TrEMBL record:
<feature type="transmembrane region" description="Helical">
    <location>
        <begin position="85"/>
        <end position="109"/>
    </location>
</feature>
<keyword id="KW-0812">Transmembrane</keyword>
<keyword id="KW-0472">Membrane</keyword>
<feature type="transmembrane region" description="Helical">
    <location>
        <begin position="43"/>
        <end position="73"/>
    </location>
</feature>
<feature type="transmembrane region" description="Helical">
    <location>
        <begin position="129"/>
        <end position="150"/>
    </location>
</feature>
<protein>
    <recommendedName>
        <fullName>DUF2975 domain-containing protein</fullName>
    </recommendedName>
</protein>
<dbReference type="InterPro" id="IPR021354">
    <property type="entry name" value="DUF2975"/>
</dbReference>
<keyword id="KW-1133">Transmembrane helix</keyword>
<dbReference type="Pfam" id="PF11188">
    <property type="entry name" value="DUF2975"/>
</dbReference>
């Protein structure tokens, strides 16, 4: 990868990590607290929603950091080393943890009794959170599978690189 492009990518990733941290610390707790005051269903799930979303953002931050390291490795021949596999595995693991967090949200919504929350707790909020949980889990597993396929391609490229280095 071009060194300039890799450096620009790393700066963009650093800004994205800072934005995630800002949302984790400032925006998310306040927004969920405000929403919990307005909606009894969100109030009943406040702790779960806050925990899952903060941990989900941690997964995003881990993926961003691993991508930044891979961009650094791609500036030279480091991307063709065994070290790159560790960072690809970190990305796959973070994606699977994110999918598991989505399933935790789905289970949390399923076990929260809606009837006790009054007429404001409509079925659409329930359905929306179900769909969010399913979509998050499906997207996390799907992207993890895609990255796993790309990992296989990287393995093949490393093998070819090593064979070529022996010949030369």
């Amino acid at each position: 990868m071009n060194k300039v492009i890799a450096s620009v990518l790393q700066v963009g990733i650093a800004l994205a990590v800072l934005a995630c941290l800002f949302f984790q610390i400032v925006v998310l707790p306040q927004a969920l607290a405000d929403e919990a005051r307005l909606d009894p269903f969100v109030a009943a799930l406040h702790g779960l929603l806050l925990t899952v979303t903060i941990l989900g953002l941690v997964c995003v931050e881990v993926i961003l950091v691993a991508t930044a390291v891979l961009a650094q490795l791609s500036k030279g021949e480091g991307i063709f080393s065994r070290r790159a596999f560790v960072w690809v595995d970190v990305i796959i693991g973070a994606l699977l943890v994110g999918a598991a967090l989505s399933l935790v949200l789905l289970v949390g919504v399923a076990v929260t009794p809606v009837a006790d929350l009054g007429p404001e707790a409509g079925d659409m909020v329930d359905v929306g959170l179900y769909l969010l949980g399913l979509a998050g889990a499906g997207a996390g597993v799907g992207i993890a599978l895609l990255v796993f396929v790309l990992r296989s391609l990287l393995r093949r490229a490393v093998t070819l690189h090593d064979e070529l280095a022996e010949v030369v």
